[in-house]
Structures are given as C-alpha cells and as structure tokens.
Amino acid sequence: MLTPAYIAQQFINALNMGSIYALVAIGLTVVYGILRLINFAHGDMMTLGAYLGLAVLTALALPAWAALLIPMLVVGALGVLIERLAYRPLRGAPEVAMLITSLAISSLIQNGATMTLTAQPRPVRLPAELTQRVDVLGVNFAVMDVVIVGLAVALMIALTLFVQRTTLGIAMRACSENVRVTQLMGVDVNRVIAVAFAISAGLAAVAGVLWSGKFGLVDPFTGFVPGLKAFVAAVIGGIGNIPGAMLGGYLLGFAEVFFVAFTPPEVSGYRDAFVFVLLLVVLLVRPTGLLGAREVNRA
Amino acid sequence: MKRFAPLMLIVVVMGLAGLAQSALNDYYQRVLSVIAINIILAVSLNLTNGYSGDFSLGHAAFMAIGAYASAILTLPARAKAVAMPDLPPWLAQAELPFIVAALVGAGLAALVAFLVGIPVLRLRGHYLAVATLGLMVIVQVVALNWQPVTRGARGISGLPPFTTPLWAYGWMLVAVAVIWRIVHSPLGRAMMAVREDELAAACRGVSVFRTRLLAFVCGALFASIAGALWAHLITAITPSSFSFLITFNVVAMVVIGGAGSISGSVIGAVLMTLLPELLRRVETTLAIGGQPLYGLSQIVIALMMLAVMLFRPQGLMGRRELPDVLGGRVGAQRAPSPAPAEAAGEA
Amino acid sequence: MLSVQDLHVYYGRIHALKGISLQVSAGEIVALIGSNGAGKTTTLTTLSGLLRPREGRILFEGHDLTHLPAHQIVRLGVVHCPEGRQVFARLSVIENLRLAAAHRADRDGVARDLERVYALFPILAERRGQYAGTLSGGEQQMLAIGRALMSRPRLLLLDEPSLGLAPMVVETIFRVIEALRRDGVTILLVEQNAYQALRLADRAYVMETGYIKASGPARALADDPAVKAAYLGG
Ligand SMILES: Nc1ncnc2c1ncn2[C@@H]1O[C@H](COP(=O)(O)OP(=O)(O)O)[C@@H](O)[C@H]1O
Ligand SMILES: [Mg+2]
C-alpha cells in the first residue's frame, strides 16, 4: 500500500488541502491581527464564494477564471459591507461583542442559504479541461490539483508583495501592532480595516470555489468546518502573523491528509477530532504558535 | 418575607410543574420541559460567558456527554444486548436510576472541561470560543466513530422517557439555586472581579486561573445534566443532535437575556424556546413558491442577536436581576455588579 | 494658532481633565509641566483626537478639531509624538518613517524631509533597514521624533521625549527641539524634567490633578518659589 506513487499522491492531496487552508487562514489572521476578532463567519464567506462560483459556471455559463474572479470581488465587497454595518459600530466595545456578532452573521448566512437554496448539496461540475487527469512518473492527478496550488501560491505571493511593499500594506502591519498609534501617523484606520476585510473575504471566496471544485459539492454549511480548521492553522502559525498563517495552513493540510492516509479506517474517521486535538496541544505547548512572538498569554 | 421568597418560589414552581404533568397534554408538557432544559443550559453557560468573562461555545459538547452517558447507563440490559452487543460487560449490565446516570454524566463532563480548560484558559478568554467549538467537533466525531458504545451515526433510540415536567423543573431549580449561590458567594465575586480587570483581581489575591476554570467546569456540569434530560425527553439521540445550532441558540438566550444576569438567562431561555416554536409553524405553513421556509426561525434569532449587539449590548436585563427591577431595594443590595470600569471613550 | 477652551475629559467615571484652557501661538515652544498623573498625556491625547472631550473646544488655525477624526487632525499639521516612543517594533526604521508620510502628496517634500530626519539623526540612516524593535531606547525616541517630522508638523505635540533616556541622548533630543524651533515648528512640550523644559520654552503651563495651576513666561515660572518647590526640586 505504501508505494512511492501512493505517497506522492497523498503529498499532492496535502498540498491541495494546505493551499486552501492557507488562503482561509490568512483572512482570519489579517482581521484578527487588527481587530482581535475571531471571525466565525469567515468560513461562510467560503460558502458564499462557492455558491457564486457555481452560479457563474452554470447560470451565466462563463469560463472558469470568471468563476474565481467574480466571487472574489463580490464576496470581498460583501466583507467590507458587513464590517461597515455590523462590526464598526462595535469598535471600542468588549472584544466578545464582535465575536457574538460574527456568530450571528454566520448563522444568518447559513440559514439564509438554507431558506433560499435549500440544504440539499448541489453538485459542482468543473469544465472538462480541469478534471482531466495527468500521469507524471506514475503519479496521477487532476489539472485542478495543479490549479489549486498554483493559484493559491500566486495569491499568497501577491499578498506578500502588497503587505511588504505598499504603504497600505505597511499601514496594515502597523495597525496589527497598534491601531491607536497608527492613527497618529495620519492613517485613516477605517480604510485599512476595510481593505483587510476585503482581502480576508475575497481570499475566503476563492478558497470556497476551489474547495467546492475539488470535492464537487456545495451546501449551506460547506465552509463552516474548514473555516474553524483554518483558525487552527492560524493558531499553529501564530495568530496575527501572515506568513504564519500560510505555514500553518500547509502544516495542517499535511497533518490531516497524512493522518487519514496512514491510519487504519477505524482511526481515520477521527480526522476532524485529530485537528482540534492538535489545536489543544499547540495551545498547551506553544500558545503563540510557530511564528508568533507577541501576545504572550493575555494582553 | 425576604427569607421565604426562594422557598415559596420552589413550592410554586414544583406545584405548577406537577399540575402541568397531570393536566396538560403531551405537546405542552414537552414544550414546558424544553423550557426548563433551556433555562438550565442558559444559566449554566452564563457562568462563563456572563460572569467570568470567558466565552465558551462548548455547551453542545457537554450536553452530548451527559446525554450519551445517561442513555447508555439507563438503557435496559436487554435492549443493550440487542442494540450494542459489543459493549464492555460492566456497561452492558448497568441499569442505573435516572438521577445516578445523570450525575455520572455530569462528573464526566466536568472532568473533560477540567482537562480542556487547563490548556485553554491560560490564554485570553476568547481563545476558549474556538477551543470549545473544537471540543464540540471532537465529541461529535467520537460519537460518530465509537461504534461499539455510541452506535455511530445510527444513534441510540428507545430511551426510557424519564423526563417529565417535574424532573425538568426539579433540576432547573437545583441549577438556578446552585448558580445563584455561586454568583453571590466570594467565588462569584471573584469571577466578576476577573471579568472586570484580571490584573486588579490578581493583585487583590484572587486566583484568576482557578476561578475561571471553576466557572467553566461548573457550567459543563449543568450542561451535561441538561443533555441527560434532553435525551430522555426526546428518547433518541444521534451525534448530530448536539450540533453547533444548539450552542448558538443557548448563546442567543444568554446574550439576549443579558450576560451577567441569572434572571436574564431565564427570560432569554423562555423567549428563545417559545419564539422558534411559534416560528416553526410559520416555516411550514408560509411557503414561498411552494417551498417551506426552513431556517426562518434561526434567521430571526440571528437578526435579534445582531440588533441586541448594536442597540442594547447588555441584553434585556443587563446585569440586573428580576428582584432589583421589581422590588427595588430588596435585591438591590445584593445585586452583584461591581463598578464597571468602562473603557475610555475612544475615537 | 492653537486655542483650547475649557476641556473636560473622562476615563469612564474618572474625571481626568477638569476644564483645561491654553493657548499656543505660532513659533512658540510652550511647556506643559506637572507631576505624574496630572493629566498632561491626557491633554495631548485629546488634542490629537484619540480621546474625545465631554466638554470644551479645540481650535487650530480656525479649524475646529474637537470632533475631527485623528488622522485628519494629523493632516492639518497637528502631529502627536506619543509618550513612551511607541514606534512600530515590527516595521523597519524606513517603514516607520514612510508610514508617517503616507498621507502626503508632495513626493519631493517627503524626500527632503527624509533627508532632514537623517541629517538630524544620522544613526537612523545607518539603521534604516532594521526592525524598529531592535533599536535602543534612545534610538527609538529619535525614530519617534523623526517619524513625527515626516508628517510635516506645524504644531508638534511632544510627550516626555526625554523619559528614561541617558543624559547624552537627552542632550541630543533637546538640541533637536531647538533646531526645530529655528525651522519654524511650533511645539507643545510635555516634560517631567521641568528644569530643562522651562529653560527651553517661551511660556509654560503647570498642571495638577486635571487643572491648570499656573501659567506664564517660562522664566517667570522658573523663578516662582511655589513652582520651584514643587517641580524643580527646591
Ligand atoms: N487609560 C486610562 N484609564 C483610566 N484612567 C486613566 C487612563 N490614563 C490616564 N488615566 C488617569 O488620568 C489621570 C491623568 O493621567 P495622565 O494624563 O497620563 O497624566 P500625566 O501624563 O500627567 O502623567 C491619572 O489620574 C491617570 O490615572
Ligand atoms: Mg504622561
């Protein structure tokens, strides 16, 4: 069973999952870094992205790239709108107020989707050129696998350049250190926060499209558990830290896929439990995560 | 008069519960029992989320532990031999009385909370939110995969229908009384001191970590009791019975009622039980394009929560208790709200 | 230039400023002195818009700052260099400086100001690529002042720039403050080091428990026996 080809296949699978977790974890970490908000509605942005992508492919019959771009833009804008309406009025309120609000928004999206689209999972059929399988040195994978990893890496490079090179990116990093002092620099913090939400929701939407494409299904709860797991990834990497979220995403992807691949079936059913046990272990051993140096214990 | 008020309350509640049990039909008895169960859930969640300031989302997990424990321990041995042939003998033989089974489950839940609380409560309170949600996933996954004991996705059915209004309201009174006592004891004041200002509390000699852990464990204990009551009310449980939905609704009860007020949680629980019950009829009768509006009641709850956070973040009751509001002086002196150290008016 | 009228500021129930009024004219250095907890930092934080007064008005060159967002106050030329340096530890020196100029459109002016900051504090030029968190306390204070200059202040609010620094560094900082005055920057200087502050300033206000206790020309205050006794160590 443990042939090199099998291991290679699992490796590709892990890269896939890791790419998606990384995209989702970045969004959580960016928002957490600035607002100290654990955004429970983040996974639902994935769900919305997946539905939108499906609609673009089927109802509008547009090509695949549009099924990525349109959800990214629309859901990104929605993220900004939600921040404006629901989170901004709560600035300065106890941290838990925004957390509760994000729970309510999550429930709103899940049940809104249930009411309008039903809870029935919908099949997502990718264009043939994406599902086509390729065989390289005995390792068999779909074109979609390459697209997922390539796209995720490209987006992460773009984001890194943005955060490192542009003044808006510098302002974002400054905000995640100290929002008050950033204002003293003449920076309009509301604009920075809006950008952070746009990036966060936009990346989650792309991740949602990729996820539903990979698994071929979308339902109102598609993003919920991956969203939670991405939080685990963000904590592993060091919450608030963008490279940490990327690293955590891939680590989680590999841990999860290899857990399933190399354990007997009676055990591999425990995969989601394994992920959260991992969270507890990280919190116990190194609560700041791998790359997070600050926010030791409670601030 | 003041001394006898609690006693009178107990007599009245139990009297009414007894009356309901003999006079009302099954449906109303069930709704009444669900209200009591929800009160237990809300009041116990309030201990962490309202009083000690740690935001737990683990109530469904602890309910599940209580429900499964009680189900397995009370199911007749004959039934178990058929449904769960692979059960270890000591479990297969066990036929405990309801109250003992519920208590065993509560002990188990408290133990789990203790073990999870130790790593998680070292961190800022809202890490607890994700970790406890993770705990819910873990418990669900275990219930789904531990076939010999839980029967996996098939769940356990045919449970003895022990839960009557008398049982439900009896436990509810115990939960409310115990938690009321805790909140009005030195421990409760320590919890609130921790919530207001952890550093200051530590300076005054409060053991911050132990206090938060105790609140969490205590909340888990009563959640488990509620789970046992629930199992023997519905008489069938599956892993998906204890989903995030339940946690979310209990959070809604606490938030809408007013985190930091026991009577607030009671009011929240009553409202949040009756409202969806009414809306559920709307969901199936009011249909758009022939399609029932499943999800409508949850949407209404979510919107209510959003509205509360925006316009009345302290919830209906804030940190006051019903006696303060109704009786003025009587409760006012006991109202356990230290001067809130409000955040500075920030830009 | 700056006119503050009857400012009342609260932290929750704590009444921190109980009716502060003060004036700063263009080109002046005005010192704000007083013991720990008097309300000096609170005054500056309110001027820069991070705290809101419950009562009172803040006027700057005809603009009402009282309800203006903090970032717009900066853009009008009122720049606050906060207590305790507060540089962004995980941004590099140059990023700290660039950030403070990000709202400016005059690229040439920004480049010139950067040169000026490097001329005032050559060590910052040397360390431009380093994380600010790795700088020494004195270097961080230089960066904090340099950063404030990058926002092109017309009125600079300086909060305890000498706090906790070695005497040599304190010298440098005060020399730079004098240089800034020569360049026409108006300065409101908060100091616990009252002796130094009064030597440098044209006028001064003395604060105590949320009130202005005394005000006048810096010389006169430095000679006032009461002020001497309370703040100048005899
Ligand atoms: N964030 C805060 N919350 C509550 N009280 C504060 C806060 N900051 C300052 N204070 C109080 O306001 C008063 C003035 O403080 P501050 O302006 O920092 O004084 P100074 O800068 O003159 O030392 C002090 O009594 C202080 O305790
Ligand atoms: Mg000060």
From TrEMBL, chain A:
Keywords assigned by UniProt, alphabetized: Amino-acid transport, Cell inner membrane, Cell membrane, Membrane, Transmembrane, Transmembrane helix, Transport
Family matches, as CDD domains: TM_PBP1_LivH_like
Compartments, record wording: Cell membrane
Gene Ontology biological process: D-alanine transmembrane transport; L-alanine transport; L-isoleucine import across plasma membrane
GO molecular function: L-isoleucine transmembrane transporter activity; L-leucine transmembrane transporter activity; L-phenylalanine transmembrane transporter activity; L-valine transmembrane transporter activity
Coiled-coil zones: none
Pfam family, one: BPD_transp_2
Any one annotated GO CC term: plasma membrane
UniProt superkingdom: Bacteria
Main location: membrane
Protein's membrane topology: Multi-pass membrane protein
InterPro entries: ABC_transp_permease, BCAA_transport_permease
Record field: transmembrane: 20-38, 45-62, 99-119, 139-163, 192-211, 231-261, 273-293
Family designation: Belongs to the binding-protein-dependent transport system permease family. LivHM subfamily.
Protein name: Branched-chain amino acid ABC transporter permease
Biological classification of the source: Bacteria, Bacillati, Chloroflexota, Candidatus Thermofontia, Candidatus Thermofonsia Clade 3
Automatic annotation (TrEMBL), chain C:
SUPFAM superfamilies in alphabetical order: P-loop containing nucleoside triphosphate hydrolases
Pfam families assigned to the protein according to its UniProt record, in alphabetical order: ABC_tran
Biological process according to GO: L-amino acid transport
InterPro entries for the chain: AAA+_ATPase, ABC_branched_ATPase_LivF/BraG, ABC_transporter-like_ATP-bd, ABC_transporter-like_CS, BCAA_Transport_ATP-bd_LivF, P-loop_NTPase
Keyword Transport: yes
An example molecular function term from Gene Ontology annotations: ATP binding
ABC transporter domain: residues covered: 2-234
Superkingdom assignment: Bacteria
Keywords tagged on the record: Amino-acid transport, ATP-binding, Nucleotide-binding, Transport
Protein family membership: Belongs to the ABC transporter superfamily.
Protein name according to UniProt: ABC transporter ATP-binding protein
Record organism: Candidatus Thermofonsia Clade 3 bacterium
Organismal lineage: Bacteria, Bacillati, Chloroflexota, Candidatus Thermofontia, Candidatus Thermofonsia Clade 3
